[in-house]
Amino acid sequence: MIKVAIADVEALVAQSLATLLGLEDDIEVVRTACSGRELIDWCAVHPIDVAVLDLQMPGLDGIDTAAQLSDAAVLIVTSHPRPQALKRALAANVLGFVPKTSSAEQFALAIRTVAQGKRFLDPEVAALAISAGESPLTDSEARVLDAAGTGASVADIAAQVCLAAGTTRNYLSSAMAKTGAQNRFEAYTVARERGWI
């Protein structure tokens, strides 16, 4: 039996994934959590085989959470499967990366695959990552710029990525310079089109 824990900022998504996986004979969801920190604390006491992590969570995102779950295989799920996020996940030794639009069968197959220590990558995202090229943005610049895509204020962006407003402003300015953009939304658009976020 493959023991799985799920962390997703949206409780309904985590519970829905747990219900879907509960239909599989060889997979048991032993925990759902609403944050990476909550899952890390729980996993420190309860061993699991696979952690299913939402890419975009406040505080510790899925990849940061994965870095602290050394005893479990990790499958990242995301609504926004961007090439740069895949590259970052692979650099952090994440084994699986799939969009939330995956079918229930693909999702279960991904869990079985990473539980065996093998990679499972969505082919479309993998192809985009190969063609995107290297990003000039640092991880911090990319995270801040990605959050800026909603049109939020600097203060709101800072709160979302857990940084000070001044630090956030500096990362935005640096990202604008690297993308050749006049404002943060244009920088977001350029980075998005090039597959950097």
CATH topology of the largest domain: Rossmann fold
How many individual β-strands?
A: 6
Distance between the termini: 36 Å
CATH class of the largest domain: Alpha Beta
Biggest sheet features = 6 strands, parallel
Percent in strands: 15-25%
DSSP summary: helix tally: 10
- SS-based class: alpha/beta
Q: What's the pLDDT, averaged over the residues?
A: 90
> Order of strands in the sheet with the most strands?
2-1-3-4-5-6
CATH superfamily of the largest domain: Response regulator
What is the chain-wise order of helices and strands?
Answer: EHEHEHEHEHEHHHHH
Shape: globular
Residue runs with pLDDT of under 50 for 5 or more positions: none
The rounded Rg comes to 17 Å
Count of structural domains: 2
User: What percentage of residues falls in helices of 4 or more residues?
Assistant: 40-55%
From the coordinates shown, what is the CATH architecture of the largest domain? Answer: 3-Layer(aba) Sandwich
Modified residues (4-aspartylphosphate): 54
Keywords: DNA-binding, Phosphoprotein
Domain Response regulatory: 3-115
Domain HTH luxR-type: 130-195
